[in-house]
Write a structure and sequence with these properties.
alpha/beta, Rossmann fold, 7-stranded parallel sheet, oxidoreductase
Length: about 260
C-alpha cells in the first residue's frame, strides 16, 4: 500500500504518545488523518499542529465511535488505514492479595478488570469492525485485492505480565490473540491486520517518571538490553508504517522492546 494523499487514515488515541507519533508520520507522507481521542484539548492541539482532523471519540461507547467515523469520512472519505492506539489501565493489584496492615484478603475488583478489557480489547475490536465494514465498500487498490490495513497496539505485558497487571495483561493478550483470527476473517476482503507489542516506551506517563523519580527512570532505561533506553514513539510509528506499506505483512504480532523480557515485578 502506497501511503500518500490519496489515502485516508484513522488513528485512535492519536492526541499523544504512540498515536500522536503515528498520526504525525502518516501526515508527513500526505495521508489524510483523523485523530480519535477523548481529550479535546490535546486532540485539537495535535490536529492543528499536523494538519489533521480531530474527532472526540470514546472507544468504549458505540455511538461515539460511529459518530467519529461518520465525521472522519465526511471530511476525508472512507479510510483505508486504521491504527488503534487508544488504551490504558487502572491500578488493580493482584488477583487476590492480603492487606498489609490488617491481613484481610482482598479480591481484584471485577469491575476494574472489565473496564480494562472494555477499553483495550473491546474498544479496539469496536473500531476494527467499524473500519473494516467501511473498507468493504471500496474497490481494491491492486491486483492482490488490497482494500485496507489495520494495526493494533498490544503490549509486552501480553506475554510478560508482571505482578499486579492481571487485567492489563489479559486485555493486551486478547488483542494479540485475536490478530490472526481477524486477519483470516478479513482475508477474503483484502484487509490486512497486524499488532505491535511495545515494550517500555517514552510516552507522556513514562516521561513524567523522569521528572518525579529520576532514579526509577534510570533503572527503567538500564533494564533494556539494547539500546539501553526507552523506546521512542517515532520507532513505534515507523514499524506501524512498515506494517501498512508491506502487502505481505499480515496476521503478525511483533514485539518492539529492545529485547527486554519483563521480570515478575
Amino acid at each position: 500500500m502506497n501511503l500518500d494523499s490519496s489515502l485516508s487514515a484513522v488513528v485512535t488515541g492519536g492526541a499523544s504518545g504512540l498515536g500522536a507519533a503515528t498520526a504525525t508520520a502518516l501526515r508527513a507522507l500526505g495521508v489524510k488523518v483523523a485523530i480519535f481521542d477523548k481529550n479535546p484539548e490535546t486532540g485539537e492541539r495535535k490536529a492543528a499542529e499536523i494538519g489533521a482532523l480531530f474527532c472526540q471519540v470514546d472507544v468504549m461507547d458505540e455511538a461515539s465511535v460511529d459518530a467519529g467515523f461518520a465525521k472522519a469520512r465526511a471530511a476525508h472519505g472512507q479510510e483505508r488505514v486504521l491504527v488503534n492506539c487508544a488504551g490504558g489501565g487502572r491500578p488493580g493489584g493482584k488477583t487476590v492479595s492480603r492487606n498489609k496492615e490488617t491481613g484481610a484478603i482482598v479480591r481484584h475488583k471485577t469491575e476494574d478488570f472489565e473496564w480494562t478489557l472494555g477499553l483495550n480489547t473491546v474498544g479496539t475490536f469496536r473500531c476494527i469492525t467499524a473500519a473494516a465494514a467501511g473498507m468493504l465498500t471500496l474497490d481494491p487498490l491492486s491486483e492482490d485485492g488490497d482494500r485496507g490495513a489495520i494495526v493494533n497496539t498490544g503490549s509486552v505485558a501480553a506475554q510478560d505480565g508482571q505482578i499486579g497487571q492481571v487485567a492489563y495483561s489479559a486485555a493486551k493478550a486478547a488483542i494479540a490473540g485475536m490478530t490472526l483470527t481477524i486477519a483470516r476473517d478479513l482475508s477474503s476482503e483484502g484487509i490486512r491486520v497486524n499488532t505491535i507489542l511495545p515494550g517500555i516506551m517514552a510516552t507522556p506517563p513514562m516521561l513524567s517518571v523522569r521528572e518525579r523519580a529520576p532514579q526509577i527512570w534510570q533503572s527503567l532505561n538500564a533494564s533494556v538490553p539494547f539500546p539501553r533506553r526507552l523506546g521512542h514513539p517515532e520507532e513505534f510509528a515507523d514499524l506501524a508504517l512498515t506494517m501498512l506499506r508491506n502487502g505481505y505483512f499480515n496476521g503478525q504480532v511483533v514485539r518492539l522492546d529492545g529485547a527486554i523480557r519483563m521480570p515478575p515485578r
